[in-house]
Amino acid sequence: MTIRGYVLVETEVGRTQAVGDAIRHIQSQFASVRAVDTVTGPYDVIVQLEASDLDNLGKSITSDIQNLDGVQRTTTCLAVNLA
Amino acid sequence: MTIRGYVLVETEVGRTQAVGDAIRHIQSQFASVRAVDTVTGPYDVIVQLEASDLDNLGKSITSDIQNLDGVQRTTTCLAVNLA
Amino acid sequence: MTIRGYVLVETEVGRTQAVGDAIRHIQSQFASVRAVDTVTGPYDVIVQLEASDLDNLGKSITSDIQNLDGVQRTTTCLAVNLA
Amino acid sequence: MTIRGYVLVETEVGRTQAVGDAIRHIQSQFASVRAVDTVTGPYDVIVQLEASDLDNLGKSITSDIQNLDGVQRTTTCLAVNLA
Amino acid sequence: MTIRGYVLVETEVGRTQAVGDAIRHIQSQFASVRAVDTVTGPYDVIVQLEASDLDNLGKSITSDIQNLDGVQRTTTCLAVNLA
Amino acid sequence: MTIRGYVLVETEVGRTQAVGDAIRHIQSQFASVRAVDTVTGPYDVIVQLEASDLDNLGKSITSDIQNLDGVQRTTTCLAVNLA
Amino acid sequence: MTIRGYVLVETEVGRTQAVGDAIRHIQSQFASVRAVDTVTGPYDVIVQLEASDLDNLGKSITSDIQNLDGVQRTTTCLAVNLA
Amino acid sequence: MTIRGYVLVETEVGRTQAVGDAIRHIQSQFASVRAVDTVTGPYDVIVQLEASDLDNLGKSITSDIQNLDGVQRTTTCLAVNLA
Amino acid sequence: MTIRGYVLVETEVGRTQAVGDAIRHIQSQFASVRAVDTVTGPYDVIVQLEASDLDNLGKSITSDIQNLDGVQRTTTCLAVNLA
Amino acid sequence: MTIRGYVLVETEVGRTQAVGDAIRHIQSQFASVRAVDTVTGPYDVIVQLEASDLDNLGKSITSDIQNLDGVQRTTTCLAVNLA
After folding, report:
1. Which residues touch H68 (CB under 8 Å, ≥6 apart)?
2. Which residue on chain E is closest to G15 by alpha carbon?
3. In this complex, is the C-beta atom of I69 within 8 Å of any C-beta atom belonging to chain F?
């Protein structure tokens, strides 16, 4: 069973496009980048990730995304099926 | 050209599943509900909406989503293509 | 592979002990309650949960914990192995 | 159909007038600057933008405004017709 | 010399359109309502007011706008010419 | 008709007295400094300004006060007669 | 030696004028009300109090002001001479 | 070895004196009330407690103080000797 | 009549003990340091000061405490007798 | 009687794994590190400490944890038995 998560990224002012592009070019060994949108609102980029388990998702966020230049903060929302 | 947005929904404590289900059953004249996930983190439900223009997207948020029982606050992030 | 999480619970003023006791008596079909501590600080009760997958962990939080009398807010921190 | 937005700009302390002037002189390929006011209150400059679509509006905010010296943070409010 | 101000209005969830409409129908003895937009973002309605002096602007905000059903909070930004 | 305002000043830690003194010595072409108090509480200095109109008051805040060494943030409260 | 303080009052929405009037009519046994201004900004009324000592100032705030209908929160800034 | 703590109490508006008096009259089986001060600032009452161990201190806060009428929130700071 | 106050000190991370020690060694011409505790919780050091009047207390906070290396922010709560 | 506490650690962006590893390798003279988890959510690492008394627990937090490279802020929640 895979794990899916939304990563809400805040960037330094003026760096939104560059961060969005960098995330689109991530070649991750941990997770698949399913979608990347630069957005208006309190966040600057929303990333949808999918991984085989929670550890790989965590590694992708901390290794692939948080280390990019211009990333200031990330907030992760994991999809859970409550039905 | 269509407009896409992420609606980050906060629900009353204990109402996440009910709100998620209600959003999944929305029959909107204003927008298409592309995806609905109940999530962990500071938000409880993330909705992806698509509409023909910004006004219809706004109507869907205020009429379709904000009026549901248990919805406490919504934050909207609109996808913008900066390339 | 199991999922482990810390649920940081804020209670209504004066309800900490009652909420702590109620969580200790949870008989959950979704998750195992590994530890429960009433605590000082910005949170009132810290719960350690373990479940077979993220969905069951989510169901335990929303069904078992958030519906208890006196629970005001929960914040979930999921253990991830980044090594 | 055009898109209109209010951009609420916070500047570094003592930079309000300079930022206001710089925005008034923007020659944007993405959007029209309809009005610029330096203001009292929690924001320092309020800009009214109009663009042919949301993407151009987003480009104007990130390319034209956020890159100006002294701009610390921007908050965007897009006009939506809910009637 | 007239005074102009932006009133950033937060409404109760689900009341944005009703509040926007009510403000559009204000017949004020204190100020002119120059523009009203329902908006996305942290605010729900942005009103542009103009009055003969600051006292009349203040009266319009407290008497005309804050007393409307569904208005939760207002933030005022007054235009100042720093040139 | 004159405009009166309270400027609530936050200073860098340890700079309260120096900022208070600097404000007391302001020779402004825009406004009269009616009173200056160094204070306890969430603010460090409270200044009462009076000007012939809002623009001059704004110029005094941004030119006379915000440019002083040690000033970190200012919050302005304008007196309005609502009677 | 007297004590002087600024009391920054937040009122319920729509109650600013009533609270301002009520404070102007205070007949206090504890302190003198030196000035009362209804204001724009994050506060609604600013009161300047003077008392023979800190205890009387405190009594005036808690007995005279905080008990008035429509007062939601008060923040006190006491004048201190640091020279 | 005893445990000492400062309990920073926020009360409902207008209830500071009553809460301060109630705490002064506490006859606790868990802790000794060493000092009680009604105060200005972001808190309303500061209580100094001493107990034989952390559990008794915790019981005193939740049973003796948090259950009093008018208490809205408590923040506890425990004395630690770092030398 | 003397003035007593609690100064709630936040220090830079890792500097709590050094700041606590420095405050214990203050030789103030303005106030007596009655007690100093390094603490857990949102603050790092709690200082109890006593001075002959409010001005001297204020001078002690701004000159004696705020100028110490590692002090990031102070919050003052003055004891008031409301009885 | 021992003291147990949860230390909720926030790290600089991109430093979660390194801080988690450093805490796992702590050889403390003050406390035992019972468990360390890198986590998702508003905190990055959750540490469970146990010490012979509160002073030793405090020393471990300030000396062992807060001095590590990449630690930005810690929040401590002490276990209390309220039964």
Report:
1. H19, H22, H23
2. E62
3. no
Using an 8 Å CB-CB cutoff, list chain H residues near J62. 82
Residue D41 neighbours by CB under 8 Å, 6+ apart: E75, E76, E77, E78, F76, G40, G41
- Under 8 Å between Cβ of A56 and A31: yes
The answer to whether H21 touches H42, Cβ cutoff 8 Å, is no
Cα→Cα distances E43→B54, E20, E31, H57, Å: 16, 12, 21, 44
Q: Closest approach of chain J CAs to the CA of A4, in angstroms?
A: 13
User: Which CATH number applies to F3-78: 3.40.640.10, 3.30.70.920, 3.40.50.920, 3.40.190.150?
Assistant: 3.30.70.920
DSSP string, chain H: --EEEEEEEEE-TT-HHHHHHHHHT---SSEEEEEEEEBSSS-SEEEEEEESSHHHHHHIIIIIITTSTTEEEEEEEEB----
pLDDT digits (tens, 9 = 90+) for A19-31: 999 999 999 999 9
In this complex, is the C-beta atom of G80 within 8 Å of any C-beta atom belonging to chain H?
Answer: no
> Nearest-CA residue of chain D relative to G40?
D41
Say how far apart CA E76 and CA E58 lie, in whole Å.
Answer: 9
Residue E20 gets the label, from left (phi > 0), alpha (psi -120 to 50) or beta, of: alpha
A47 Rama class: left (phi>0) / alpha (psi -120 to 50) / beta: beta
Phi, psi of G12 (to 5 degrees): -60, 150
Alpha-carbon distance G57 to nearest alpha carbon in chain F (angstroms): 14
Between CA E49 and CA J42 the distance in angstroms is 40
Q: Are strands H45-51 and H31-38 parallel, antiparallel or unpaired?
A: antiparallel
Cα nearest neighbour of G71 on chain H: H13
Structure token pair of residue E1: 């010399």
Q: Which helix (H) or strand (E) holds A19?
A: helix A16-24
**Chain A positions in Cβ-Cβ contact with residue C67 (cut-off 8 Å):** none
Nearest to I43 among H20, H77, H82 (CB): H77
Alpha-carbon span H75 to H80, nearest angstrom: 16
Rounded Cα gap, residues J20 and C77, in angstroms = 15
Q: In this complex, is the C-beta atom of G20 within 8 Å of any C-beta atom belonging to chain F? A: yes
For I57-83, how does the pLDDT look when each residue is reduced to its tens digit (9 = 90+)?
A: 999 999 999 999 999 999 999 999 998
Annotated domain spans of chain J: 3-78
Cβ <8 Å between F81 and E58: yes
> For every one of its 83 residues, what pLDDT tens digit does chain D have, with 9 covering 90 and above?
799 999 999 999 999 999 999 999 999 999 999 999 999 999 999 999 999 999 999 999 999 999 999 999 999 999 999 98
Residue E72 forms contact with B (CB below 8 Å)? no
The residue-averaged pLDDT of B19-41 equals 96
Q: How far apart are CA I38 and CA I17, in angstroms?
A: 7
Backbone angles phi, psi at B23, to 5 degrees: -65, -40
How many inter-chain contacts (H to J, CB under 8 Å) are there?
32
CA atoms of I76 and C35, how far apart (whole Å): 38
J78 interfaces chain C, CB cutoff of 8 Å: yes
ipTM reported for the complex surpasses 0.85? yes
How many angstroms separate the CA of residue I62 from the nearest CA in chain H?
17
Q: What is the largest CA-CA distance in chain A?
A: 41
Residues of I in contact with F73 (CB under 8 A): none
Residue type (1 letter), E17: Q
Cα angle value D32/D36/D39 (rounded, 5°):
155
Q: Give the distance between the most distant pair of CA atoms in chain H.
A: 41
> F11 pLDDT exceeds 90?
yes
Mean pLDDT of J35-40: 96
Selected residues 44-63 of chain I with any CB under 8 Å from a CB in chain C? none
